[in-house]
């Protein structure tokens, strides 16, 4: 029953405000894709469009070859899990889970059998006759999950399902969600603003900003090779330094920025354009007190303790950057150092406006 | 902190109860008096003034009219008010603010002005029959209560519950009846009681809309007091009180007064 989902150039408006612009996204059958971004980026809008609670201005939505674009939401056959659980307060846990089966015209014995089976899978059999009000947050979310899964939908969607749970439970629940999703092989769309959650649970992640898709790839790729400065900053490449290529010799490239020359091998980065941005995380800039080191001259500012390292705010000719230094030699504010980029921990972005 | 309430609190609470109960006790007492004039404490005990209500045909007719108007008016107000309250809450963002205010206007306009306006437009203007005019007047009178009370109930209703039901395959209209309505039942019951009692006890609007042959109980009480000073008025008042209590009791029995606990 697992089916691919395809969004083709979707645009959406709230009144005259454009909230989604030309979004195309293909989710393969059985895949779990996260929509990740800050609030207002359009991720929830996208989910509501797929569910049918909103209509796109342009574009089409297909699920397993079936065109959903103009289909009313109750005919779409999509399992939804909400942030606030959205359990039916006037029905028992069992009746909550059986609700979708009832809509499908199943007899009461069959409904009960399947609902109980589903409750067993999420470990809630003893609570079948409880009222949802008597459950904890984690139990409520399990009921919501069971209720969405029991109808065996071709598509399962999650709208920030773990945001109302405490940190420990969040981690447990996301593992549980992933296991259930894997076991059923249900195509899934998962909306979250939590990067760790998205990366840990997803086959692929779509990072969104201001109604646009910024990058759509596997978490490993997003984490190591962001495609643009937005995604780079989003995944923690805090330092983005502009460079210009001064010399090329085969695969070896020399590039320059204020006060330093950087030697890179094209092999590690694919092609290197004449003008590019070098992006690093704080760990990607080694703090060196050796005045002869080939690095960015910097003056250390505020030092903060991260547990595994000291972090320094640094003033450089290329602007303010953040670097992590070793725990063994804490340096004082005002110290002049060289910041040496570690190529393995750097990535290269096209210069802004160049694409 | 002790669990015992403060003596002053107990005293004030007792005073409030006294203040609420004493007039009722006096009315009940006066209604049971055997005298031909209103008095308290009652002299002698008799139910003759209760019998007298039913001997005066005007009381008999107006009790029936009042109940009909209150019941039908409340029903119509619920039929208009529930969908209105739903739409106002469900589409709060999309709908203009003044639309909600529109449903409260009959409360904001002084009732006497409201009654007069209805007289001018319905009875005198459009020539609407008296019973129909009363029904329209009372429907409009209680509609704000219905919309407000059910809106308050819907305000705490999470509409993603409705979306969950729809996503599970329940059609929107069906979802309204199986999911939304059961969850605002307390509000609907509260609105019913409030509207029914408001209609049953209304004077100012009815004053303008009653006419030859058709009147409501409160208006008939007024008319009676203008001419007689016997305890019939007290016994009718007791009857009206018991009607109100009966309505609440019936509703409690059939639907449950769970809203009182919320």
Description of the molecule:
Chain A: One of its GO terms (molecular function) is ATP binding. Chain A: InterPro entries: AAA+_ATPase, ABC_SmlMolc_Importer, ABC_transporter-like_ATP-bd, ABC_transporter-like_CS, Mo/tungstate-bd_C_term_dom, P-loop_NTPase, Transp-assoc_OB_typ2. Chain A: Belongs to the ABC transporter superfamily. The complex is a heterodimer of chains A (355) and B (262). Chain A folds into two domains: 5-230, 3-Layer(aba) Sandwich (Rossmann fold); 236-350, Nucleic acid-binding proteins (OB fold (Dihydrolipoamide Acetyltransferase, E2P), Beta Barrel), CATH 2.40.50. Chain A is built from nine helices and 20 strands. Chain A has helices at residues 43-51, 93-103, 108-121, 137-149, 167-184, 195-201, 219-224, 229-234, 266-269, and strands spanning 5-14, 17-27, 32-36, 58-63, 66-67, 78-81, 155-159, 187-192, 204-209, 212-217, 239-249, 252-257, 260-265, 275-280, 285-288, 296-305, 310-316, 319-325, 336-341, 346-350. In chain A, the strands form four sheets. A six-stranded mixed beta sheet of chain A has the order 6-7-8-3-9-10, with helices on both faces. In chain A, a hairpin with a 2-residue loop joins strand 9 and strand 10 (212-217). In chain A, helix 2 (93-103) crosses helix 3 and helix 3 (108-121) packs across helix 4. The longest helix of chain A is centred in the middle third of the chain and has 18 residues, at 167-184. Chain A is elongated. Chain A starts with a strand and ends in a 5-residue tail after the last strand. Chain B has one domain (56-261): MetI-like (MetI-like fold, Orthogonal Bundle). The radius of gyration of chain B is 22 Å and the shape is globular. Chain B has 13 helices and no strands. With 262 residues, chain B is mainly alpha-helical. Classes of the chains: A alpha+beta (355), B mainly alpha (262).
